Amino acid sequence: MTAAPLVPFAVPALTDSEAGAAVVSGVALVLGVAGALIVALLLAEVISAVVRVLGRGTWLAENLSRRARRPLRIVLVVVLVWLAIRLVTPGGEDAPGWRAGVEHALLILLILSGAWLLGALLFVVEDATLARYSLDSPDNSRARRVRTQVMILRRVTVAVLVLCALAGALLTFPAARVAGAGLLASAGLVSVVAGLAAQSSLANIFAGLQLAFTDAIRVDDVVVVDGQWGRIEEITLTYVVVHAWDDRRLILPSTWFTTTPFENWTRRAADLLGTVELDLDWSVPVPAMRAELVRLLEDSELWDHRVGVLQVTEATGGWVRVRALASAVDAPTLFDLRCTVREGLVAWLQREHPGALPRTRYQAIGAGAEPESTGEAATSEGSAGEAQPTTASRRPVPRGAVGEETALLDQGKDSRLFTGSLAAVERSRLFGGPGRDVIAEREATAHGQPTTPTPVAPTDEAKGPGTRPNP
Question: What residue ranges define each of the domains in the chain, with the CATH number in brackets?
Answer without folding.
Answer: 23-132 (no CATH), 142-153+169-268 (2.30.30.60), 271-359+399-415 (3.30.70.100)
